[in-house]
Sequence to fold (142 residues):
Amino acid sequence: MEFTVNITAIIAATFANFVVGFIWYTPLFGKTWAKELGMDTSVKPDGKFMAKALALSVLGNFLLAWVLAWTMAGWQFIPGASNVSPLMNAANSSFFLWVGFYVPIHISAKTWQNHSWKLIGINAGYHLVTVLTAALILAFWK
Fold:
């Protein structure tokens, strides 16, 4: 068994999650998210700020997909893993990553930054969807 990842799938997951982020934080929850953060939605950010923010978003999405791809590849060495369907591989990988890494960060944001439960729900939901999106692409695109 060889330990490899599919860079094309990683790039596809990166851009799929960029689209998910746009949809999540614009038409779906954008106004509520901004309100919960106390942002003034009538003020439009300048182009330089947006370019930097978008570039960093792509970088973050790439890092998520890249690390998840290597993690999922490593799990294939567990005895019996070859009998697990790609759907279950994606579901298990994304759920455990989300619960183990994202949920604690959101709990800390509630505790120390006094974020509202509504904001925690929006952000935690986004992270679950992006991890699941990346995991599905990585699991099915061999």
